[in-house]
Task: structure prediction
Amino acid sequence: MTDSTSSKHTPGPWELCGGNIEARGVRLAVVDRPVDDAGNENAGLDWDEALGNATLIRSLPELIAERDALRADNARLIAALRKYHSEHFPGTGTTPEAIADRELYAQARAALAGRE
Result:
């Protein structure tokens, strides 16, 4: 699956008009006559199934926008978790700073152990 940022599509909203999917009066797809690879119309699909497929296809611009919003939310949550983790559990990550923290903690522990 490609990202909407790397693929182009006609912006929504897409409309289901009879057996066509349209955007701004332009027919994007004809879905009322399912055709198999051999060119046979109505190949195993009834109208209800074709209409269900058309409804799903019509929803793609909204689904892509929702996916992108969820990805952005996820990125913000990950950043917040990383910040919380670094503030509350320093020295436990894999960043150069965390590795340096662990080395400093190890040195401090060794120095304290030598005082006992």
Notes: The chain has a mean pLDDT of 76. The chain has two domains: 1-58, 73-116.
